[in-house]
Amino acid sequence: VPAFNGFNKAPDDLDEAREQARHCKACPLWEPATQTVFGKGPADAPVIFVGEQPGDQEDLAGEPFVGPAGKVFDAALAEAGIDRSQAYVTNAVKHFKFEPRGKRRIHAKPNMGEVKVCRWWLEQERELIRPKLIVALGATAAASVLGRTVTIRDTRSRLIDLPDGATKLLVTVHPAYILRLPDPEAQARERAAFAEDMGRVKAYV
Ligand code: URA
């Protein structure tokens, strides 16, 4: 992958990538955010999970999926018998985008331009880890991995061959989508379907 994002050299390992990303100003999201939330997990992880962007708690902690969506994610992994520490967990966009509302910071969806610019970091992570499987949590992650817009309905739960010929992609819902469902029954159904998708991931970890 050619150098970009203001760095004259592509990183040799994840630590170098993380250190470079700490200083990234390739899009305006760096400024109001607390810090870059880079991916977390072993460099030889067989699976990369990709979310959308860090939320409020992730922005403060500096780690992906530690807030409410992370709890839903963890529960589904536990149900499928997957040890999260063996996987690499990251996001399509690595800064928290939000709108201030009083003392609260309300999540704002990253636009396609921000996703495109930040894709460089995801490509570094993919290149350095070379996983067997990438799991896209939601449509933003799927769009970043595939480089084109797709719907969850058309892509969910199938193993899709990526153009590199070595990596597969599994698309599922974003855990925050499950949390937003107002009907408890629908939420229970979606939690079960999400855990079922994690069951499909289990074969790769
Ligand atoms: N939602 C995401 O997409 N990523 C996180 O890290 C947290 C919430």
Automatic annotation (TrEMBL):
<comment type="similarity">
    <text>Belongs to the uracil-DNA glycosylase (UDG) superfamily. Type 4 (UDGa) family.</text>
</comment>
<feature type="domain" description="Uracil-DNA glycosylase-like">
    <location>
        <begin position="38"/>
        <end position="199"/>
    </location>
</feature>
<protein>
    <recommendedName>
        <fullName>Type-4 uracil-DNA glycosylase</fullName>
    </recommendedName>
</protein>
